[in-house]
Structure formats: structure tokens, C-alpha cells
Design goal:
268 residues; Glucose Oxidase, domain 1; 7-stranded mixed barrel
């Protein structure tokens, strides 16, 4: 729009995008409330620093940040960072485990704005750290809150995020080096993909597959269906069981299998 006001054009463009991919966000007045300073937004993202937990293995290393320019020396402050794609709060793209599926930069914007479903299994995880979300957990949730909406992101709220500040407790490895933390069951993944047509799943642990998994069946099921994952999600306890809308901003690494994300939840 030649000769127009840049800020006005940007606002119009954002409004058009939101109206196209998240009509419920606008219809319920959430965006307007946020812009007016009255809306409630939760940041579901962990901060990145060298002390955060990461997947064990020789090819992985801590998050790295170093200063490459200073105000005193260069008149500008700037830094360099390095990290694996799958570190911190991040997205797993469908090509992470399944050849030929879309890379993270090819995820469509409308896939990354979605109704949030939060299934609280903290009590079961407290009794069994290797607990896997079952189809019956989903059905119990639906009996109380209604059917999971099409295109939702289903979060498994395990309470594991309380361990985030202690990487060893977060990985929870036994004497043989096997990790122990909760995740989705393959049966639940199949149900959500084929019976509820969701966009993706999320969890507050290192992986959507439970810690002892060797075959990563949930990854294969979800990615095979073109669905994405959100891992190491923060502050799920601040979301209601249903009614929130998540907006996922992920680095569009060309050809990448995932990337760090900033995730916001607009509360009802």
C-alpha cells in the first residue's frame, strides 16, 4: 500500500491474519482486551540460559550465549547464541521423525493458533513418574468439559515443570541412565489424531514420549499424521482446562526439524 502509514498497515495486516486463522480470538474480544491492557495472557515459555535441562547425548551441549559487541566499545550491544533445535520450550516439526513430512518453516500460520486443551494428570504422575496419558484420561476430561475441539493443541499437564531448575531431577535418570518422566501413550496419540483431528500436542517434560521410551511411537504417530509437538512447555497450571487460545511463534529454520518457540495463551 504505497504511501500509506506503516504502523496502520501493520495493524491492518495483523488483524486480517488473526481474523482468518483465529476468529474465536476476535469474536470473544480477547485481542481487543489485550490491546487495551485488560486481557490476560500467559507466557508458556522457559527462558533460555546455559543452566537449562537438555536432552542427554554427545551431540547435545548447553545453551550458549556470548557478547560480540558492547555499548562501551562498539556503541551497540549484541550477542551470539547457539543451541540445538530441540532445546528449551520448542516445536517438533513433522519431519523430525518422519521423512517427507513438512519442516518447521513450512508449518502453516493457522496451525500455530489453536484452542488449548489442558488435561491435568499431576496426581497420577505423583504416583508413577512414568505415567502415560491414556484414552480414558481423555474421555474423562471430555465427560466434564465437552468434546475436544477440532484443530486443538492438547496439553498434558504433569507438574514436571517444577523440576525445571534442576536438570538432573528433570531428566530423572536411574542407575542405568534411563530417564523417567511422563508422556502420552501411543493409544492416546492415535485417538487424538484420528478421532479428534487436533493440530498438535504439548507437554511440560523433555518429550511427548515417556522417559523410558526406546521407539518414540508417539513421535512417529503424530509426525506421520503431519502434527507437531510442543515440549518443555512452562506454566500450564495457569491455563484453564479449556477456553484458552495458544499462539505459537517458532523460528522458521529452513528445512529444520524444529526450533525454539515463544508460546502465548490468551485466557478466556
Amino acid at each position: 500500500m504505497k504511501g500509506g502509514h506503516p504502523m496502520k498497515e501493520r495493524v491492518i495486516a495483523i488483524a486480517l491474519l488473526m481474523s482468518a486463522v483465529a476468529p474465536s480470538l476476535l469474536a470473544q474480544g480477547r485481542l481487543e482486551r489485550v490491546l487495551a491492557g485488560r486481557g490476560r495472557v500467559v507466557d508458556l515459555t522457559h527462558r533460555l540460559n546455559p543452566a537449562i535441562p537438555y536432552w542427554p547425548g554427545e551431540q547435545y551441549r548447553p545453551f550458549e550465549f556470548r557478547t560480540i559487541a558492547t555499548l562501551e566499545r562498539d556503541g551497540v550491544f549484541s550477542g551470539f547464541f547457539a543451541m540445538p533445535e530441540h532445546m528449551g520450550t520448542h516445536v517438533d516439526a513433522p519431519n523430525h521423525f518422519v521423512a517427507g513430512q513438512v519442516s518447521v518453516d513450512r508449518l502453516r500460520p493457522e496451525q500455530l493458533i489453536a484452542p488449548a486443551v489442558v488435561i491435568d494428570v499431576r496426581e497420577k504422575v505423583a504416583r508413577n513418574p512414568d505415567y502415560q496419558l491414556m484414552v480414558e484420561d481423555i474421555r474423562q476430561w471430555e465427560r466434564r468439559y465437552g468434546r475436544i475441539p477440532r484443530g486443538a493443541v492438547v496439553f498434558m499437564y504433569t507438574g514436571w515443570g517444577a523440576r525445571w531448575g534442576n536438570p538432573e531431577a528433570y531428566r530423572n535418570r536411574d542407575a542405568q541412565g534411563v530417564m523417567h518422566f511422563p508422556g502420552f501413550s501411543p493409544e492416546a496419540a492415535e485417538f487424538l489424531v484420528h478421532q479428534r483431528q487436533i493440530h498438535g500436542i504439548g507437554i511440560d517434560t523433555l518429550s511427548v514420549d515417556f522417559g523410558p521410551s526406546r521407539d518414540f511411537r508417539v513421535h512417529h504417530i503424530m509426525h506421520g499424521a503431519g502434527k507437531y509437538h510442543l515440549e518443555n512447555v512452562a506454566r500450564l497450571g495457569l491455563l484453564p482446562p479449556r477456553g484458552a487460545i495458544v499462539v505459537i511463534g517458532v523460528l522458521p529454520i529452513e528445512g529444520g526439524s524444529g526450533g525454539p518457540a515463544r508460546i502465548f495463551a490468551f485466557l478466556p
